[in-house]
Structures are given as C-alpha cells and as structure tokens.
Amino acid sequence: MKHIMMIGFGAMAQVVWQNLPEGLELSWVVVPEHSITKVRKQLPEQVQVMASIAACKQVPDLVIEVAGQAAVREHAEAVLAKGWDLALISVGALADEDLSLRLQQVAKQHDSHLIALAGAIAGMDGLAAARELGLHAVTYQGRKSPQSWQGSHAENLLDLQSLQAAQVFFQGSAREAAMLFPANANVAATVALAGLGMDDTQVELIADPAVSRNQHTITATGEFGEMRIELMGVPLPANPKTSTLAALSVLRQCRQLVQSIQI
Ligand SMILES: NC(=O)C1=CN([C@@H]2O[C@H](COP(=O)(O)OP(=O)(O)OC[C@H]3O[C@@H](n4cnc5c(N)ncnc54)[C@H](OP(=O)(O)O)[C@@H]3O)[C@@H](O)[C@H]2O)C=CC1
Ligand SMILES: O=C([O-])CC(=O)C(=O)O
Where is the Aspartate/homoserine dehydrogenase NAD-binding domain (predicted)? Predict the structure, then answer.
C-alpha cells in the first residue's frame, strides 16, 4: 500500500479521495486549524488531520497540494525540505519568482521534486517537448461562464450578473494572470512553465454567458510546427471555478505510484 498526504480538503480533494486507485491510501490531510474539526468528521479515523507538515511523523509516498496558492506559500518548502515529492495543482504560486527559486533550491538540496500537474488542461507533454527546439509564440485563452468567475478579481472589472455577451476582461502575461486570478488561472502558469515562460506567454480571459463549460484554448508555434489545443471542461458542481479534469490530473499522478508504465 502507498500512502498519500493531501494539502487541502475541498471540492477537488473530495473527488480525488473518492476515486483513489487501488493500492493507494489517503493517510494525512493538512487543512487550516479552523477546518480541522469539520474535515475530521468527513474522513475515516485512520486519516490524520492536521494543520502543519511537521505533525506527520512518517513518510508519505507522495504529497499532493489541492488547496490554493496560499497553501503553496505556507507548506511547500516544509514538504520539500523533508525530501518528499510534492505534486502542485496551484501552479500559479510559481508566478512569484522568489518563491519559485526558493522551492527549486530546497528541492535540489533535499533531493525532492516539485511536480507541476497539468490540471484542467492537456498537451503539456507536447508543449514541453516542442520547447526543446525553440518556440516562437504561445497563447492561452480561458473562457468561463460568469458564475465561474464569481468571487474573482473579474468582479472588479465587469458586471458579471448582467453580462449579455462574451467579454474579454484580461489580456496580459501568464505571470499577471496567475497572480490576479489565483483560483482561476493556474493553468496559465502551467502553460508558461511548459512553454515560453511566465512573461512571454500571452493570456486572454473571457466571461461568456453562452458557455457552461470551462473552455481552454492553447496555441503554440515553433520549430516543431504548430499546435492548437481546445478543451471544454465540465466544472465541478461543488466549485464551478474548478474543472473536473483538474481533479483527474491529480488522480493520474497518484496512479503513477502503482503502475509500471509511466504515461
Ligand atoms: N491547475 C489547475 O488546473 C487548477 C488549479 N486549481 C487550484 O486548486 C485549488 C483548490 O481547488 P478546489 O478544491 O476547487 O478549492 P476549494 O476552495 O473547494 O478547496 C480548497 C481547500 O484547501 C483548503 N485550504 C485553504 N488554504 C489552505 C492552507 N493554507 N493550508 C491547507 N489547506 C488550505 C481549504 O480549507 P478551508 O475550507 O478552511 O478554506 C479547502 O479545504 C484552487 O484554489 C486553485 O488554486 C483549481 C482549479 C484548476
Ligand atoms: O479548473 C479550471 O478550469 C482552471 C482553473 O481554475 C485554474 O487554472 O485555476
């Protein structure tokens, strides 16, 4: 049996926990102190629910962060400093260059790895491969329903309640997008990491009352040729900002622990 630690226990974590492949067990959950009692009631007794990494006295086979960019800032260094591998879903936290450099340094020092999950998008394998021979341009467009942008900085830029037609409300770099929309634009940072970097990846964000899916479009040109990836993701009912595929990408990473062919 392999043992998983989860940081966060919200909409995505619940899907991951309920679908963990055979041979894997959730053994530790890290949540803010104020949530411990609530989360404790949702999990079997053998799962240790705690507020800090230091409270775990054993060694997880994998730590997965499904909690948000603030949780990466709070816990990632402690995980990597223990020599444990950390799979990140809130990849946008790495738009903070100081944090990103510090985490890479700690991981190197302690022989641990920071795994940036593909999350709600696809094609990161091809994009990262294409980079090897040089990319010319990479763009990411995120289109979601007004409901999926609720509670984000988009509320300050347009009237989501009365929107009648699609509206572009952000154009800029992946770094800006990931920092301004921490619960909606982590994938912009993921595209940037796989491709042209945080400052040279162009991002456009759109609120569209005509869509019910979370739509992601990635284009890239380079020495390899051209690619265009379109994805219409079903939002999680418990959190429409989050696409179901993001939870499934966490499960895929977990499955790598128990299968011989890495795919
Ligand atoms: N890469 C991708 O494709 C995607 C990435 N994401 C990222 O995943 C995150 C989680 O998504 P989702 O599950 O839908 O969000 P939820 O808001 O449903 O759940 C977040 C969970 O994390 C907990 N949490 C918050 N802060 C901390 C912290 N500092 N330490 C430990 N736990 C913490 C919350 O606890 P409490 O209830 O107490 O706040 C809650 O249990 C998003 O915030 C976003 O950053 C989301 C979608 C796609
Ligand atoms: O789930 C999605 O559609 C993407 C998302 O929220 C993010 O990148 O933070």
Answer: 23-114
